[in-house]
C-alpha cells in the first residue's frame, strides 16, 4: 500500500457524503442535564471544523502516548493506535504513537501479546494526546504521570474501563464520563463524584478530557479526535482507508442500546 | 466485564436471525460440507452455513505469523475478537524471538518461533513486509492441518506466495487490487467483497475487514448468536461482519489507480 498517494485517490473516489454535525462537548453536557440535545444544522462544507476543534502544531507531529501495564485490554489500545497511525496528510506529519510504562521490560497484554514499551514515565516525550486503555496494573506512578501530563495535553482520553484509571487521578471529579456498559454499576459506586453517562459512544467534557464507552468505541472516539484536529473530511478519509464501516464516531448517541442496563443479555 | 460467562449467556439469548447464504456459497466458489443445517436444531447452536468443528477439548489455537511492519490492525483486529472468547489460545509466531517492530512502531516479542509454535487450528496472516521463505513454508505446512488459514488486507500476498491460493478466489485491501492482480495472476481476485472463503482458506479485505472475518469465524464455530454477542460485548456497532457484500463501495476503486 503506497499510502502517500492515498489522499489524492480518496479524493478522486468522491465518496464522501455530506453528514450533519454531531453533538459536541457542550451538547453532551446538556444531555446529561436531561435537556434535549442541541445539534448544529448540517453544514455542506465538509472541510469545516467541528464544534470543539483542536489545533494541530504548526509543524511536527502530534505526540500520542499510550500508558500501559500488564494486562492491558488489547482492543482498547489497538483501535486508537491504528486510527492515529493511519492519518495521512500530504506535506505534514500527523500523529506519532508510542507506549509508556514503568520500565521498558516487555509486558503482556490481557491476551498475552508481549509489548516492549517505547518509553518509561521518566523518559517519555511530552504528549499532546494521552490514550488510557483498560488495565489492571495501573500504579500510583502511572496515575501521577497521567495527572501531570494532562496539565498540558490537548486531550486526555480513556477507553472502556480505562475510565477507572482516569477517574483515579481525580481529574474526572465533577465531570461527565462514560465506561464499558458492563461496568456502569461498579464505576458509579467507586467514583460517586463522576457523572456517569450511560448509552453514549463517548463523552467530551472539560477542556481536555474525553471518555469512550467499551472497546471498539475507542476507534470511534479516535476518529472523532482526528476530526477535531483536521476536520471531518480527513476523519472520513481515514475511516475509508481502513475500510471501517462503523458510524459510531459520527454520533455520540449511537450507543443508546446500552443505556438501560449493564446486563447485555436483556438487550438482544 | 465477566467474560467467562459469555457463552453461557449467549446460549441463553436465543435471538438468532436467519443466516444469509455467504458470498462464497452463493457464488459457487466454495462448496464446503454442511451448507445446509437442519432447521430443527436449537437456534443457539446453529452455526453458519459452513460450520467449523470445535475441538473435542481444549482451546482453539490461533497463530499469528508476524514480521517487520506487520499492520497492527490486521493482527490486532482478529486478536481482539478472539480475545472475547476464552475458547481461543492466541500467540504470535516469528522466525526468532527477537522483538519485531510492527506498524507505527509497536514492538512485539513473539511468543514462538516457527520451530516451536504449537500446531494452529487457525492461522491469521496480517499484511507485513518481512515475510520470508521460512514463514511461507511454515504457513504452507501448517495450513494442511488447520481448520482455517486466513489473511487480512495485504496479508493476502503472503498467503498467495504459498501457492495455496492458485486457481482460487481471494480478496485484498482495495488499495492493492491492481498490484495483487498483476503479481498473482493465478489467483482470482474478487473486488468489493468484505471477505472470500475457499475451503479451508479465507481472505479478508482491507484493515478492519479482519475484525469482520474473525467475527464470521466465531460464527462458524459457535453460531451467529455467540458471534453477535461477541460483537455486542465489544460494543462493535458495525454490521459489516454479517454481510460479505458490505465492501461493495470499494469494487471500482482500483479504476482510480494510476
Description:
The complex is a heterodimer of chains A (268) and B (258). Chain A has 268 residues and is α/β, with parallel strands linked by helices. Chain A has a single domain (3-266), classed as Class I glutamine amidotransferase (GATase) domain (Rossmann fold), CATH 3.40.50. Chain A has helices at 6-13, 25-32, 74-84, 140-149, 162-168, 184-190, 217-230, 232-241, and strands at residues 62-67, 95-101, 107-108, 114-115, 119-120, 129-132, 155-158, 176-177, 195-196, 202-205, 209-212. Chain B has 258 residues and is α/β, with parallel strands linked by helices. Chain B has eight helices and eleven strands. In chain B, strand 6 (122-125), helix 4 and strand 7 (148-152) form a beta-alpha-beta unit. The N and C termini of chain B lie far apart (48 Å). The relative contact order of chain B is 0.18. At the A-B interface, helix 1, helix 3, strand 2 and strand 4 of A face helix 1, helix 3, strand 2, strand 4 and helix 8 of B.
The major pleated sheet of chain B works out as: 7 strands, mixed
Identify the overall geometry of chain B: globular
From the structure provided, what is the oligomeric state, counting identical versus distinct chains?
Answer: heterodimer
CATH architecture classification of chain A: 3-Layer(aba) Sandwich
User: What's the overall average pLDDT of chain A, rounded?
Assistant: 79
Amino acid at each position: 500500500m503506497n499510502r502517500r498517494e492515498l489522499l489524492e485517490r480518496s479524493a478522486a473516489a468522491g465518496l464522501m457524503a455530506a453528514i450533519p454535525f454531531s453533538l459536541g462537548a457542550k451538547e453532551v453536557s446538556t444531555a446529561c442535564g436531561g435537556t434535549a440535545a442541541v445539534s448544529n444544522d448540517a453544514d455542506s462544507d465538509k472541510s469545516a471544523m467541528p464544534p470543539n476543534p483542536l489545533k494541530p502544531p504548526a509543524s511536527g507531529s502530534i505526540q500520542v502516548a499510550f500508558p500501559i501495564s500488564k494486562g492491558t485490554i488489547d482492543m482498547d489500545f489497538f483501535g486508537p493506535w491504528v486510527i492515529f497511525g493511519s492519518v495521512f496528510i500530504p506535506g505534514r506529519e500527523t500523529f506519532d504513537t508510542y507506549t509508556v510504562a514503568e520500565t521498558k521490560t516487555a509486558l503482556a497484554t490481557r491476551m498475552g501479546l508481549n509489548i516492549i514499551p517505547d518509553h518509561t514515565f521518566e523518559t517519555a516525550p511530552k504528549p499532546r494526546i494521552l490514550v488510557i486503555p483498560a488495565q489492571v496494573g495501573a500504579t500510583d506512578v502511572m496515575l501521577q504521570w497521567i495527572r501531570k501530563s494532562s496539565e498540558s495535553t490537548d486531550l486526555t482520553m480513556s477507553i472502556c474501563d480505562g475510565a477507572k484509571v482516569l477517574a483515579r487521578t481525580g481529574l474526572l471529579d465533577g465531570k461527565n464520563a462514560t465506561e464499558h456498559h458492563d461496568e456502569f454499576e461498579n464505576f458509579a459506586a467507586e467514583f460517586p463524584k463522576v457523572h456517569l453517562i450511560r448509552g453514549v459512544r463517548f463523552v467530551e467534557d472539560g477542556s481536555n478530557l474525553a471518555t469512550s464507552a467499551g472497546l471498539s468505541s475507542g476507534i470511534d472516539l479516535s476518529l472523532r479526535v482526528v476530526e477535531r484536529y483536521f476536520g471531518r473530511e480527513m476523519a472520513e478519509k481515514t475511516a475509508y482507508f481502513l475500510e471501517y464501516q462503523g458510524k459510531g464516531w459520527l454520533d455520540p448517541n449511537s450507543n443508546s442500546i446500552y443505556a438501560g442496563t449493564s446486563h447485555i443479555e436483556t438487550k438482544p | 466485564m465477566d467474560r467467562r460467562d459469555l457463552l453461557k449467556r449467549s446460549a441463553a439469548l436465543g435471538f438468532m436471525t436467519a443466516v444469509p447464504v455467504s458470498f462464497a456459497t452463493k457464488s459457487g466458489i466454495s462448496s464446503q460440507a454442511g451448507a445446509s443445517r437442519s432447521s430443527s436444531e436449537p437456534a443457539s447452536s446453529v452455526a453458519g452455513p459452513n460450520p467449523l468443528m470445535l475441538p473435542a477439548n481444549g482451546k482453539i489455537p490461533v497463530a499469528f505469523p508476524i514480521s517487520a511492519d506487520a499492520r497492527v490492525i490486521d493482527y490486532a483486529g482478529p486478536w481482539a475478537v478472539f480475545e472475547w472468547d476464552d475458547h481461543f489460545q492466541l500467540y504470535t509466531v516469528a522466525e526468532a524471538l527477537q522483538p519485531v517492530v510492527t506498524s507505527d512502531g509497536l514492538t512485539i516479542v513473539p511468543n514462538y518461533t516457527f520451530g516451536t509454535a504449537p500446531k494452529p487450528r487457525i492461522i491469521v496472516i496480517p499484511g507485513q513486509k518481512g515475510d520470508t521463505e521460512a514463514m511461507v513454508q511454515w504457513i504452507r505446512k501448517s495450513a494442511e492441518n488447520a481448520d482455517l488459514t486466513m489473511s487480512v488486507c495485504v496479508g493476502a500476498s503472503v498467503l498467495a506466495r504459498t501457492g495455496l491460493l492458485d486457481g482460487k478466489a481471494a480478496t485484498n485491501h482495495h488499495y492493492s487490487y491492481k498490484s495483487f492482480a498483476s503479481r498473482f495472476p493465478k489467483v482470482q481476485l474478487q473486488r468489493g467483497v468484505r471477505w472470500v472463503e475457499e475451503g479451508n482458506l479465507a481472505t479478508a479485505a482491507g484493515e478492519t475487514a479482519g475484525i469482520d472475518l474473525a467475527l464470521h469465524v466465531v460464527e462458524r464455530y459457535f453460531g451467529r448468536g455467540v458471534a453477535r454477542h461477541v460483537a455486542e460485548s465489544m460494543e462493535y456497532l458495525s454490521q459489516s461482519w454479517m454481510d460479505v457484500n458490505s465492501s461493495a463501495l470499494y469494487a471500482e476503486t482500483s479504476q482510480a489507480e494510476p
